[in-house]
Amino acid sequence: MYQTLLTELEKGTLVITVNRPEKMNSLNKDVIEELGKVMDEVYGNDEIKTAIITGAGEKAFVAGADISEFLSLGQEGGAELARKGRVNVFDKIAHCPKPVIAAVNGFALGGGCELAMACHFRIASANAKFGQPEVNLGLIPGYGGTQRLTQLAGKGKAMELMMTADMIGADEAKTLGLVNHVTPLEELLPKAKELLQKIQLKAPVAISKVIACVNDAAMCDAHGFDNEIERFGACFATEDMKEGTNAFVEKRKPVFKGK
C-alpha cells in the first residue's frame, strides 16, 4: 500500500515505520505524501485507536529531510514545501484526536526531530540523538520546529540548540522534557505499546478533548480556559461519561465505546 512506510495494526495500535534505512529514513516528498495519507487512515479508520511513529533499523528514527530536493527551490518554493508538509503531516499529527506517540530509535535530526515533536509525546531509546542542525545549511526548521522545541524545552535551550546545531542524547532530552521515557532499544516499541494499551482503556472522547486542550495551552491560546469549560461540559453528553461514573459508583471497571 505504501512505498516508503511499513504499517502494522495490532490491538488497536497502528505502528507506522518510516522505511528508508539506507537513507537514514530521511524525509523526501514521497515520505511526506505517504505520512499524510497514513494519518488520514488513522483519523478515518475506527479500528485504529492509537498510533506509533518510528523508523526502520537501529540507527535512525528520521535523520532529517532529503537535502537533495532543496537544491532547485527558491524562496516561494521553499515556503510552499514547508507549508504543505506542516499542514498535511505535522499539524495533522499534532491535532489528531487519537493519541500518536513517537518511538525514537537513533537519530531524530532536523525534520525528524520536528516529526517526533509533532507527536503527542515521545519515548526514546538510549541511543537516540535529537537536534535541529538547519543553520549548518543556511536554513531554519520549517515544519514547526522553532515553535514546538520552544514549547517543549523552553526559550533559552531552544535558542541554544537551534543556533549551535548541537545534538543532545536521550537522557538530556528527558531532563528537558523533550521525551517522557528512555528505554533500551529492544524495549522501545514494547514500552510504547504498553502505554497506548493503558490509554486505550480510557474514554476515547475524553482523550480527544485532552489532546485539544493541551494543544491550546501549548499554543498559549487566549481561549484555552473557556475551551476547557466547553469541552468539559460536552463530556457530560457522552455515553462514556455515564459509563465511567456508573462504573466508579458500582466499583467495577468501565467499558468505554467512544460515544
Account of the protein in words:
By secondary structure, the protein is an alpha/beta fold. It contains 10 helices and 10 strands. It has helices at 29-44, 75-94, 111-118, 145-153, 155-164, 170-176, 188-200, 204-218, 224-235, 239-249, and strands spanning 5-10, 13-18, 50-55, 60-62, 100-104, 107-109, 121-125, 129-131, 168-169, 181-183. A 6-stranded mixed β-sheet has the order 1-2-3-5-7-10, with helices on both faces. The protein has a 4-stranded mixed β-sheet with strand order 4-6-8-9. α1 links the parallel β2 (13-18) and β3 (50-55). α3 (111-118) crosses α4 (145-153) and α8 runs antiparallel to α9 (224-235). The longest helix has 20 residues, at 75-94. 37% of the residues are buried. The mean pLDDT is 95.
Helices and strands, with pairings:
Layout: E1 5-10, E2 13-18, H1 29-44, E3 50-55, E4 60-62, H2 75-94, E5 100-104, E6 107-109, H3 111-118, E7 121-125, E8 129-131, H4 145-153, H5 155-164, E9 168-169, H6 170-176, E10 181-183, H7 188-200, H8 204-218, H9 224-235, H10 239-249
Parallel strand pairs: 2-3, 3-5, 4-6, 5-7, 6-8, 7-10
Antiparallel strand pairs: 1-2, 8-9
Précis, in short:
The chain has helices at residues 29-44, 75-94, 111-118, 145-153, 155-164, 170-176, 188-200, 204-218, 224-235, 239-249; strands spanning 5-10, 13-18, 50-55, 60-62, 100-104, 107-109, 121-125, 129-131, 168-169, 181-183. It is of the alpha/beta class and 259 residues long. A hairpin with a 2-residue loop joins strand 1 and strand 2 (13-18).
- Beta percentage is 15-25%
Q: Compute the number of helices.
A: 10
Order of helices and strands: EEHEEHEEHEEHHEHEHHHH
Class computed from helices, strands and strand pairing: alpha/beta
Straight-line N-to-C gap: 31 Å
Strand order, sheet with most strands: 1-2-3-5-7-10
Number of strands: 10
